[in-house]
Amino acid sequence: METLKTFYDLMFQTRDARRLLVLDCLENKTLEHKDILPLKQALATLEATPKKENQYILKLEGEKTIALDLSYEIDELKKDLLFLEKGEDALLKFLENIHADFETQIKSVVSALSAKKFHTLITDRDGTVNNYCGRYASSIQSVYNAVFLTRFAKKLDNAVILTSAPLRSIGLVDISVVPQGAFIHAASKGREYINKKNKRCHFPIKEEKQKKLDEFNAELSSLVKNPQYAKFALIGSGLQFKFGQTTIARQDITKSIPKDESLRFLKLVENLVSRIGNQKQFFRIEDTGKDVEIILTVENVQSGLDPKDFDKGDGVAFLEKHASLHMAKGGNLICGDTPSDIPMIPAALHYSNDTTAIFVSNGNEEFEQKVKRLYPNTIVVSTPDILVTALNALARD
To answer: Are residues 191 and 255 in the same domain?
Structure first.
C-alpha cells in the first residue's frame, strides 16, 4: 500500500467484510478462516506501510506525501480479530487491560440501569459509541462494536445514531456495518435521516438559504484546491458537505497542523462566511478546535428572536415528529460526548421525564463537570468501549 487512495480502498474492503461478519456473529454462525482472512490481510498491509516517527507515510500525487496516524484502523482490526478468533471473553479481558476501571464502570452502569425499561436510544457516534479516528472516511465501524450495539438496539422500539457528519458520500451509512434496519441513521445533526425501511427523509430548507450554502460550498471547494490549503480537506473530518451544513477540518486529533496555521485558516473561513452572507441571518459558525462547522440557521420558534443554528436538540424534535419515535412513552436513553450533544437531553426531557443520559468524557474533566452541572443525574463513563460494552451487558442481562 503506497497511496492514500489505496488506503481508503482497503478500509472500505474491510467494511464490506465486516458487514457480513456482523450478520454471522448475530446469528451465532461458526466462522471459517476465509471469513476472517480479509481483516487479517488488511491488518498486515497496514502494518507494512512505511513509517517515519510513528507516522505512516502515503503518497498523494506526484512526489507529495502525507503522514498519518493509523492507530484507530490498526487497533480496531486487532480487537476485531481477537473477538472473532478468541471470542467475546478474550476481547473483554483485553479491554479491561487497556482501560482504567473498565469492569468497575461497566458494573456501575449496569447496576444503575438494569431495572429500567428502555424504548428509544438516541446516540452520537464518534467519541460516544465509536472510538475517535484521525480521519472520518476511514473510521469504519468494528465488528465487535456493531454486534454489541445491535444486541442492545434489538431490545428497543427505536435506536437512532444521530451525528453531525453527512449521511452519504462519504457519510454515516458508508462507514457503518450494523445490519440494515437495526438503526435509524440520522446525519447533519438530524436534518436528514434514513429510516428503518431505507427511505431518506430530510428537514426542509428555504431556497434562498440553500443558494447561499451552495455559493459558500463552491468558494470553499476552490480554496482547498489551492496547494497551500489542500491539507485541510485531507486531515481529520476533511471537507464534508452535509444537508444544511458544511464542515472543514482545521486540525486533527494528533495536532498535525501548527497552531498558528490552523488559526489563520479559521480566519479565512470566517471571512468567507461574512462575504457570502449575513452571518446572523443565514449562517452560524461553530468552531470545535478541530472542525469548523458552517450551519444554516433555522427560525427561532420558541423565542421569536433572530434565527438560530440547527442543533441536535432540533434534530431530536424533527425525528420525533417525522420518524415516529413516540418518546412520550418514556424509557429514553441519550448518549453523547461533546457540548454539541447536550441539547439532545432537554429535547428528550420535553417529551418525557423518563429520560436517562450517559455521556463519555474521553478524559475531558471540564466537559464532565459541565454536563453534570447541567444535568446532575447524567452517568459518565470514560471511553466509547466502556459505553458499548455496558449496553451489550444490559442487552444480555
So the answer is: no
- Give every CB contact of residue 206 below 8 A, 6+ residues apart in sequence: none
How many domains does the chain divide into?
2
We report the CATH number of the domain holding residue 212 as: 3.30.70.3080
Surface-to-core class of residue 282, CB atoms within 10 Å of its CB (0-12 exposed, 13-18 middle, 19+ buried): buried
What values do phi and psi take at 242, rounded to 5?
A: -100, 180
Return the C-alpha torsion angle 265, 269, 270, 275, nearest 10.
140
**H-helix or E-strand containing 220?**
helix 207-225
Q: Which domain holds residue 216?
A: 207-309
| 300 φ/ψ sector (left φ>0, alpha ψ -120 to 50, else beta) | beta
- Separation of alpha carbons 280 and 263, rounded Å: 22
CA angle, corner 48, sides to 46 and 50, nearest 5? 100
End-to-end CA distance of the chain: 44
Q: Global pTM?
A: 0.87
Using only the alpha carbons of the chain, give its radius of gyration.
21
Residue 21, C-alpha cell as written in the block: 461478519
Cell numbers for 183, please give them. 438503526
- pLDDT one-digit tens code per residue, 212-248: 999 999 999 999 999 899 889 988 888 999 888 899 9
What mean pLDDT do residues 175-203 have?
A: 93
Residues 361 and 263 in one domain: no
